[in-house]
Amino acid sequence: MTGGPVRVLVADDKENMRKLLAKILADGYAVEEAEDGARALSLVATRPYDVVVTDIRMPGADGFELLGAVKARAPDTEVVMMTGYATIADAVRAMRMGAFDYLEKPFDPDAALAVVARAAEHKRLADAARRDDASGGEPSSFHNLVGRSARMRAVYGLLDKAAGLDITVLLLGETGTGKELAARAIHYHSARRERRFVPVNCGALPAELVESELFGHARGAFTGAAAAKAGLFEEAQGGSLFLDEVGELPLPAQVKLNRALQEREIRRVGDTQPLKVDVRVIAATHRDLREEVRAGRFREDLFYRLHVFPVTLPPLRERAEDVPLLAQHFLAKHARALRRELAGGFDPEALRRLAGYPWPGNVRELENAVERAVAVSSGDRVRVADLPAEVAGAAPAGPEPADLAKLPYKEAVAEARDRTSREYLVALLAEFGGNVTRAAERAGMERESLHRLLRRYGLRSDDFK
């Protein structure tokens, strides 16, 4: 958000609600309106906004889909959800997905203005932080993916290239590494961003209904098919279809999927006429598909049809330097969702336990652990006792701060070279709450020298404040 009025999009299918919000925000805000979810998706795909205020229930696309589109394309844009009393649970769910806040209808105009003002200020601060981050030459996020390790920066580059190429993408990696976030980033950064992103978990589809769900069915195609039904390929027409856990598809569905990719047409179950489709398929799996092919569980022709542009998301244990950044990101997110004030962030020892845990469930497990810690914490910060037992009992990353951070820097390097050097810096920043001046004094070096070391090891002082 730079100079000029704050840009706000109001999405609601009720005209009186749109006009009310436009009147409330008339002073100092540039308000645009969308009469349904489809129009809102088109606007956020082509225009920048500081704040989006959206109803949850809308035709065309609901508030959750709009929230996902906004956060994938422009993560710093804040989203405020509007809800009736009966859907408060949905609003809380939306905040866990990244919404800034929610307004319960009917709302007080002053309260609505205050929420939008807070959201706009949060966006302004995020913009400033992003500009500072960009000046350091190392991106800390790509859409809703977070991390500045070398592994993640390489992934960002591949995802950016994939977005510009209208080809099939295969996302590989363990469960919980962020494959759906990567798929959304590709879609909302591509030329198809104005059309729908349709996700489906192939492993959750009943085997007998897989083909009907993907390709649709004709009336009377099977018992209970009282009317014709469009499948997910048709729903995604012009946009992207995300096939999560594609390795779980039964072999008959794999045959039809391969044909759909090859011929760019589908045939509804029980129908004789093919339908042309214009859909970009993004598939994902945690399985080794080459091994699945050798075992006869996955078709070789489909494997090569999907394996056009593979991108592997690394497990969290292979980018442990991103754990503090991710933990702070999730703390801020869930503190907002749970209406908690945690100005103190993480206790340094709690942060070291998080960094020392191997995270077999990857980023998803880390987020769940932080959400739990936020929920059970008391006071103004998260402590070791607030962490799940298996995390709290993990060996801390590196030597104790009391031992390591008090050594002169050269001695610490001599003790254990690069890995300990990084752990030394982590402990040093944790001890001084990210205060680079005080940390440099303790280390016996110039402030700029410490900044260079922080950049070398992918650390930011702000992550420890």
From TrEMBL:
Matches recorded under CDD domains: AAA
UniProt main location, coarse: cytoplasm
UniProt key word Transport: no
UniProt-listed InterPro entries: AAA+_ATPase, AAA_lid_NorR, CheY-like_superfamily, Homeodomain-like_sf, HTH_Fis, P-loop_NTPase, Sig_transdc_resp-reg_receiver, Sigma_54_int
Keyword annotations: Activator, ATP-binding, Cytoplasm, DNA-binding, Nucleotide-binding, Phosphoprotein, Transcription, Transcription regulation, Two-component regulatory system
Pfam families the record matches: AAA_lid_14, HTH_8, Response_reg, Sigma54_activat
Recorded GO CC terms: cytoplasm
Sigma-54 factor interaction domain boundaries: 145-375
GO MF annotations in UniProt: ATP binding; sequence-specific DNA binding
Compartments, as annotated in UniProt: Cytoplasm
GO biological process, one term: regulation of DNA-templated transcription
Record's keyword annotation contains Endoplasmic reticulum: no
Modified residues (4-aspartylphosphate): 55
Domain (Response regulatory): residue spans on this chain: 7-120
Name the record gives this protein: Two component, sigma54 specific, transcriptional regulator, Fis family
Native source organism of the sequence: Anaeromyxobacter dehalogenans (strain ATCC BAA-258 / DSM 21875 / 2CP-1)
Classification lineage: Bacteria, Pseudomonadati, Myxococcota, Myxococcia, Myxococcales
